Amino acid sequence: MQQNPAESRIRVLIVDDQAMVRQGFGALLDAQSDMTVVGSAGDGSEAAALVRRTQPDVVLMDIRMPNMNGLEATRQILAMPGEQHPRVIILTTFDADEYVFEAIRAGASGFLLKDATADSLVEAVRIVAGGDALLAPAITQKLIADYAARPAAPRDSARLNDLTARELEVMQRIARGMSNAEVAGDLFLGEQTVKTHVSRVLQKLGLRDRTQLVVAAYESGLVRVGDAPDSTQR
Length: 234
Known about the structure:
Elements: E1 10-15, H1 19-30, E2 35-41, H2 44-54, E3 58-62, H3 70-78, E4 87-92, H4 100-106, E5 110-113, H5 118-129, E6 134-135, H6 137-149, H7 165-175, H8 180-187, H9 191-205, H10 210-220
Parallel strand pairs: 1-2, 1-3, 3-4, 4-5, 5-6
Helix pairs in contact: 2-3, 7-9, 7-10, 8-9
């Protein structure tokens, strides 16, 4: 039986308190042959209700909104009953937003600045819908800088004890900002092998995606702030 093309499209929900932003993003994404916008909401509480009704694959979530902000909405959406949850991309105008760490822990799959190009937004939706995570380069650097400025906390290195030497090498490079292809080239591995190692690391550490992997690498001491990639790397 042939699959209905509409059923294979990425279902996107847009959440932002500015109507013009919702309309602009909606028109852009609806114009893509592999995407369909299933709804839009002006605040987090409305978003949570819409997720139940529309079952999106990806939610574009503004972080600063009235009534319920994007952080709390992300928590509620990802805590809903069931095994299938949408993946959340946080949209923000702030490249040093104080909610970034909390949003990662709440389960957000990525962050994108609102001034990103149209191509970057479309690519972000496809990346996250495909199961990967992303951080805009500017946010990555601010995230690391913010982490460095926080009071020192005990390193939780014991959580890495179950990882093999190769898995540690892969985790370290991912946390430095390398893509799967770059890790493969650096370690002389196939790209599919790298993906397998990343999946095993996520499973062993109980992490949702690569974004949480980055934070875990810094919190465990596997990677230190001086190891951060330059801003040209993803």
